[in-house]
Write a structure and sequence with these properties.
The complex is a heterodimer of chains A (290) and B (579). By secondary structure, chain A is α/β, with parallel strands linked by helices. Chain A is built from nine helices and ten strands. Chain B folds into four domains: 194 residues, Pyruvate-ferredoxin oxidoreductase, PFOR, domain III (Pyruvate-ferredoxin Oxidoreductase, domain 3); 182 residues, Rossmann fold (3-Layer(aba) Sandwich), CATH 3.40.50.970; 70 residues, no CATH class; 107 residues, Rossmann fold (3-Layer(aba) Sandwich), CATH 3.40.50. Classes of the chains: A alpha/beta (290), B alpha/beta (579). At the A-B interface, strand 1, strand 2, helix 2, helix 4 and helix 9 of A face strand 7, helix 7, helix 8, strand 9 and helix 9 of B.
Chain lengths: 290, 579
């Protein structure tokens, strides 16, 4: 069995000291280790952004792709190798702006991907522009007078699109985040984990203190009902003095996409040998045109 | 005159012009004739004017032409558009219920007005079967043995569920046949007679390419519907369960190519079909495949642009686009088949090239090649010579010996870094669209950058050994040397035959593998040519420009067509006369 250090990459993170990404990095490694997975059984796909460098910092199969496009690339990987665990790392710009269209479709098709969205409400890699989750009125380099756009609620979008697993976490609460990642990896189908993560350089509002005062574990509250869609929608909307975290919605009754693909009934298409067609099959193809 | 014949079936969208025309083409193919059939339709579901043109001959033909012997008009508009195209003595079949008024018809043609609606009704058919009646009449006029048409109707409409429809169509076809034969056959000089011939296939470029892809081990296809590329996706979906192909209709073309790249990265032979507009959306991801050295195949079936352009028509105007699409520099391979045989061949070959050189391969086709139906000998779809070459892979021993990790992007002489089975315990690696080191980790070092750029581009040099030189047709020395690429092949071959009959010699240099450009082979032929004439379906002479860029040779004369219609041999000859 692998230990947590087996997932260590030789590459040192280039994130700012104190970046919320460090908490996510560690929690993901813990989750993979506790699940008994080996690096070769895991595929980490990302887009572009500070969060999307994560695959470089974990020893596992990694693919750092294009801004916003991690989900479709990961879908291709999953449909080729449904036997592997596929995790996507995106940011709020990457995943909720450029990639939001793909998220809606990944959710509705319930493809077996764990989508970890590092949500710091700001663009870090491009140095400080407002993001789709920035609060209205956020002052940034591209909104010096305060942003006019209202923020998107990714959890509600995912729920509306038919997601079967929706969770929120805080990067500093590593134990809770690891447990959510573990549940997501074991979930049947698409799982969104929105991870609230302070950007210590460009976001002076949503700090560790700011989150620390607000987040609470929804599973410890009376009335916690993650199988109830209406409860999940109501809870996902809560944002302000209190911010709920934990698994807010999970149903296991929906088949994953990959379970239903006829060509995958005989196992992963990616491990099959590539062979010439039998004479019989070749002739059948020709016969249709004679 | 016997067995040299063109018929046009014209009507509204929704009247089954294309399917019935294709059925008639198949009947002629089963009668042992060579067939070339072209659909012409508008971008709409109902109404408008569509036609389907079928040419048949008892000798090899390469394209349609403008000599029309029979028009089967299902609407007044079809009469107006096509009656004037008929040769003297040609016949016009239409429903007398259309109340044309005979003075509307040109005097050189034969009026074969028939009570088609009544014939259909009396035979127990529905009004949807006017099309079947029309081709039945064509058989009656030309003397084509009805058993060929009957066999096609049986195959198309038969089966358990549709046997009643098949019977009704058969009755309608026979009734129209008998009527036409009895009243008009002796007035129609153009006849069709079955000839002994080996059974040929009748298919278009899209089908040939898809069969090729299946033969080449394509087991993943993701796509977003776009004319004229979507039939490739549809056909793959139809065969998915039987052949174990994962197919996915996606939310957009960006997702389509990204999924194909994901699957290609994970070791599956993967492709996406599209047209120029969809390819425009794929451009950034094409660079991702280039940078991360992922094998992926894009079938780009061109239609006229820019933007929406003419969705159901043809053009060859994406050549420079696919050669240069995406920022930065990376190797790509571009194939442009011109025949059914080449479409099949490139359909499987593309996957070998993509895996061997670990780069995107674009198969550039167009609506004319994709949708025209042609008879070919069965050997043209040549499964026996299909090879599977997955390129350089680490052996199990080499995998076991990996001590310090796997260099997915190892610097090598050819630039090709051996691949591994994806997810192998000893070969865990990451890939990045950022510049990276040999292991795949993000790296900005200048020296590493220079070496990585050169490593990737060296693969293009290595790929030259697998690039087919252009093919020459016709006499070695000739008055004219045509240069064409892709679907220009057929019409030029026809034009060459027509020139020969006028005592003018010509030959053709047909370019199929476009990139890396076979400069030496092109240069060798063109330097010796007396007079070079390029023929291509765009406004700017993109191939002529590429030839100039790659060989320094200036093509003397260009014949260009960009009205959305395919070249006909007559178009080429008229253009030739103008200069």
């Amino acid at each position: 069995m692998a230990s947590k250090t087996d997932f260590d990459s030789p590459v040192k993170p280039t994130w700012c000291p104190g970046c919320g990404n460090f908490g996510i990095l560690s929690a993901v490694k813990t989750a993979l280790t506790e699940l008994g997975l080996e690096p070769h059984q895991v595929v980490l796909v990302s887009g572009i952004g500070q969060s999307s460098k994560t695959p470089d910092y974990i020893h596992a199969n990694g693919f750092m792709t294009l801004h916003g496009r991690a989900l479709p690339v990961a879908t291709g990987v999953k449909l080729a190798r449904p036997d592997l665990k596929v995790l996507v790392h995106s940011g709020d710009g990457d995943g909720y702006s450029e990639g939001m269209g793909h998220m809606v479709h990944a959710a509705r098709r319930n493809i077996g991907i764990v989508h970890i969205a590092h949500n710091n409400q700001i663009y870090g890699l491009t140095k400080g522009q407002y993001s789709p989750t920035s609060a209205e009125g956020t002052r940034s380099k591209t909104s010096p007078e305060g942003s006019i756009d209202r923020p998107i609620d990714p959890l509600m979008v995912a729920l509306a699109a038919g997601a079967t697993f929706v969770a929120r976490a805080f990067s500093k609460n590593g134990r809770q985040l690891s447990d959510i990642v573990k549940a997501a990896v074991q979930h049947r189908g698409y799982a969104l984990i929105d991870v609230l993560q302070p950007c210590v350089t460009f976001n002076r509002v949503n700090t560790y203190e700011w989150y620390g005062e607000r987040v609470y574990d929804a599973s410890g509250e009376p009335g916690y009902a993650p199988a109830d869609f209406d409860w999940a929608m109501r809870t996902a909307r809560i944002w302000g003095d209190r911010i709920p975290t934990g698994i807010l919605y999970q149903v296991e009754s929906v088949l994953s996409y990959e379970e239903q693909v006829p060509a995958l009934r005989d196992g992963p298409v990616g491990t099959r040998p590539v062979l010439p067609l039998s004479a019989e099959k070749a002739q059948a193809l020709k016969a249709a045109y004679m | 005159m016997k067995n040299d014949f063109t018929v046009i079936l014209g009507g509204e969208a929704g009247q089954g012009v294309e399917s019935t025309g294709a059925g008639f083409a198949l009947a002629l193919a089963r009668a042992g004739l060579h067939v070339f059939a072209v659909p012409d339709y508008h971008s709409r579901i109902r109404g408008g004017h569509n036609f389907f043109q079928v040419r048949a001959k008892d000798a090899e033909i390469f394209s349609h032409n403008e000599t029309v012997h029979l028009v089967l008009a299902l609407t007044r508009e079809a009469v107006q558009v096509h009656a004037g195209q008929l040769v003297p003595g040609g016949g016009l079949v239409y429903d007398t219920a259309l109340n044309l008024g005979t003075d509307a018809l040109p005097s050189h043609i034969r009026d074969f007005g028939m009570p088609l609606r009544d014939i259909v009704e009396q035979a127990g058919g529905s009004k949807l079967m006017l099309n079947t009646a029309a081709v039945g009449a064509a058989a009656g006029l030309t003397g084509l043995d009805m058993r060929f048409l009957e066999s096609v109707i049986q195959d198309n409409f038969g089966g358990k569920k549709g046997s009643e429809i098949a019977t009704a169509n058969l009755n309608v076809a026979c009734a129209a046949h008998d009527y036409a034969e009895k009243h008009f056959a002796d007035q129609f000089p153009f006849k069709l007679e079955a000839v002994e011939a080996p059974r040929r296939m009748l298919l278009g470029g899209n089908a040939a390419m898809t069969i090729g892809a299946l033969a080449g081990g394509c087991r993943f296809m993701a796509g977003y519907p776009m004319t004229p590329g979507s039939p490739i996706l549809e056909m793959m979906c139809a065969n998915a369960a039987e052949f174990g192909v994962v197919t996915k209709q996606t939310e957009d073309e960006i997702a389509a190519i990204c999924m194909a790249i994901g699957a290609g990265h994970a070791g599956v032979r993967a492709a996406t079909p599209t047209s120029g507009g969809g390819f425009s959306l794929m451009v950034e991801a094409l660079g991702l495949a280039g940078m991360t050295e992922v094998p992926v195949v894009v079938f780009e079936v061109q239609r006229p642009g820019p933007s929406t352009g003419l969705p159901t028509r043809t053009e060859q105007s994406d050549l420079m686009f696919v050669l240069h699409a995406s920022q930065g520099e990376f190797p790509r391979i571009v194939l442009a088949p011109g025949t059914i045989e080449e479409a099949f061949r490139d359909g499987w070959r593309a996957f070998n090239l993509a895996e061997k050189y670990q780069c995107p391969v674009i198969v550039l086709s167009d609506h004319f090649l994709a949708a025209s139906l042609q008879t070919v000998p069965q050997e043209a779809v040549d499964f026996e010579h299909v090879t599977i070459d997955r390129g350089s892979m680490l052996t199990p021993e080499e995998l076991d010996a990996l001590e310090t990790g796997y260099k997915r992007f190892a610097f090598t002489e050819t630039g090709i870094s051996p691949r591994v089975p994806f997810g192998h315990p000893r070969a865990v690696f990451s890939a990045a669209s950022d510049e990276h080191d040999e292991y795949g980790h993000i790296e900005e070092d200048a020296e590493n950058r220079r070496r990585m750029v050169e490593k990737r581009m060296r693969k293009l040099d290595a790929a030259r050994q697998d690039i087919f030189p252009p093919k020459s047709y016709g006499p070695a020395e000739a008055d004219f040397t045509f240069v064409a690429w892709g679907s220009g092949y057929g019409p030029v071959r026809e034009a060459m035959g027509m020139l020969e009959r006028q005592g003018i010699s010509s030959n053709l240099l047909h370019i199929t593998d476009v990139w890396p450009f076979p400069a030496d082979a092109v240069s060798e032929v063109l330097r010796k040519a007396k007079r070079v004439v390029s023929v291509e379906g765009n406004q700017t002479g993109q191939m002529a420009g590429l030839i100039r860029r790659e060989t320094g040779i200036e093509v003397g004369q260009q014949i260009l067509r960009y009205d959305g219609r395919p070249f006909s041999p007559e178009f080429i000859l008229r253009a030739l006369e103008e200069v």
